[in-house]
Amino acid sequence: MSKIEFDNVYSLINAKISKKNTNFREAISARERLLVTLRFLTAGDSYTNLHYSYRLGISTIAEIIREVCHFIWVVLKDMCLPQPTKENWLKIAKDFHLRANFPNCIGAVDGKHVRIIKPYNSGSLCYNYKHFFSVILLAICDSDYKFIYIDVGSYGKDCDSTIFTNSTFYQKLMNNDLQIPEPKPISSTNPIPVPFVIVGDEAFGQTDKIMRPFGGSNLTTKKKIFNYRLSRARRHIECSFGILANKWQIFHRPINVNLDLVSCIIKTCCALHNYVRERDGYKFEDTLSIPGFEEVPNGFQRATRRGASYRDVFADYFTTEGQLSWQMSSIN
Hints:
alpha/beta; 47% helix; nuclease activity
């Protein structure tokens, strides 16, 4: 985060985190409160390290981080994670077509395990298949590596598909309450209107609104090309997680706080990710690795016939009018 953007964030939350001086002591300034919190999120320092660095009590630091994270999320969530309008969806689809060569795509979805220390009295709720404790961050991003939607706080034992189908976004998606544009043809030779879709991996069920790759090993050339083209679009969510984890290094270690604060920390980092990404850009190297995050296991969901038919329309387009000059060499 640049100094200018730090000052901008400070000006947005200054009034909410400022404290009054008393006759007994001077209050910790709002600027120092924000500095302590950002140091905690970006460096992943423990409360003890911050205690020695800023000469503040550990309990004071814990309260500062809880309060500042809460207000950062309250202030930035509508600014950095707004509900997209029809015009926003069309712009996202246009950018995906330009950058990933995937038409009518309005997002890429995936989930990651965020490591935590075992919560008190939680049993095996947060224990995942990789044998550590975690909560899950499920996110949808655009082609500019910014998050459109996040779902935070599901137990580590859950899988992507279960979390997604239980989310408010999925319910609105199925009920057509997201102002997503009407279907339109992707080919000049095939007049069939194709709906705008979100791309995901094998964990998500194939529907007319969710595109997943073809399963199996003995695939035809057309199916292999479709899987390659889908992976070109889906990699944006993997790169978004990489930028998030490399920028906010609290994710490099197990987070040792209460579950409610874990969710607040993750939401705050996602909001700050969008804020910084839009204003200060990103480092290309950050997109190449995802330290601290682990894949969420795949669930099993059957494909709908309607969804499978639209997937075939995409596959036909990618081998005819929409083919790329290098795609054959990429699947061999």
